[in-house]
Amino acid sequence: MALRQLLSPLLFPAATLSTSTASSSIRLRTSPLFLQQLIQPLLYTPIAIPAAIRIGVPSILAEIWESILRAVPKKKTSHRKKRQRFLAGKGLKDVTALNKCSACGNVKKAHVLCPFCVNDIRKLWNRGSHNNSQSGFQSKQYLTTHTIDHAHPTDIYALATTPTQILSASGSSSILVHSTNDPEFPLSQTLEKAHKLGVHHLTTSRNGKVAASVGFGGELKIWSEEDGKWSQSREIVDSNKPGEIWAIALSADGQYLAATSSDGRINVWDNLADGAKIREFETKGSFGMSIDISVDGRFTASGHENGGIYIFNNDTGRLFHSLPGLVRSVRAVAFSPGGKLLAAAGESKVIALYDVSSGEQVAILTGHGAWIFSLDWSDTGEYLLSGAFDGKAKVWSIDHRTCVATHAETEKTLWSVNWLPKTGRNEGFATGGSNRSISFYREATGG
Description:
By secondary structure, this protein is an alpha+beta fold. Helices cover 20% and strands 39% of the residues. It has helices at 2-11, 14-30, 33-39, 51-71, 79-88, 92-96, 115-135, and strands at residues 98-100, 107-109, 142-148, 156-161, 165-170, 175-179, 187-191, 199-204, 210-215, 220-226, 229-236, 245-250, 256-261, 266-270, 276-281, 288-293, 299-304, 309-313, 318-323, 330-335, 341-346, 350-355, 361-366, 372-377, 383-388, 393-397, 402-407, 414-419, 428-433, 438-443.
């Protein structure tokens, strides 16, 4: 202690020592505890550290401390907060962007349902619900009037009607023609050896004068009716291979024939021009499983294995709409008689209704528990008929968007269902499928 008191005045002058002590005391009062500990002299003996070095140490440590604070990462921001910041900043442009509704034409926000259309649908639904409760809306009743047992030796794959007849085709080579004017539906004609390997699709024109059939051998034949009798008018030869041509549809007057192919193409032939191919529509290459032509002849619709649904404009020869909604194979498409709606169904087990002009999906009809293979509209467009893999046939009210009748007399597949020509006030339909029989139903008469 005596030595320290002796040497201190020599090594550390009083002025320098007082200045250093004052600055150190100020920094000690304003620095964190950790920093205060760092800037304390490591040796109590003033001889160990010169005064000049002791004066610079606190400032260096302060700078190091500030660097440490800047290097510490900030608290991570959650994805939700980032999303909120995005919407409040750059994403705000997308939220506030405006476009025109394709259905009603009113201006609405992008990526948001049109409030005008939603309001109209809500009003329509409320009005329909109110009318149902007031009028006592009930399900329709259809009675089995006749059944042709074992009409074909194999599964019946296709039914097609005319104003006076119903044609049926199966895995056998013959096409049968039954009269619908008689309640017993007698057999009026058999087209022997129409297709050697059997028939998988059959269709008729709306006027009942032309029919077309496709065989498992790949042949495509056109039939014409005269005085109630059918005969082959021509065969479409297009280097067709077995399975290449699948679903077919005729225009209302029978002049044009459209068919899907295994590679997704839609071919159109003119029956009045010796069966010349006049148009070919391209899709994404998925197997074409169903097709239909609108009553007015303006549009052709096709359903595909990948769930795609396409509407083509026959006047321009271009794609009109690519419709969303179904993600599985579309096995049936059908235009309403007025041409305003398109029904599509298949392995999704639901029926989707689309507005033809806008391409918007307007309804989903649920109720089937199995794949849907066939669709057919009534003449008035009020009802839609469907047949499914589980043997159930359902009648749907388009106005009320609900099933009004279900028939399940067989558990075997219904490959085809068709409305019958209306007689008087009562409507009827026919079904055919794996039970090899044709069943006929008529609407029950009210008392």
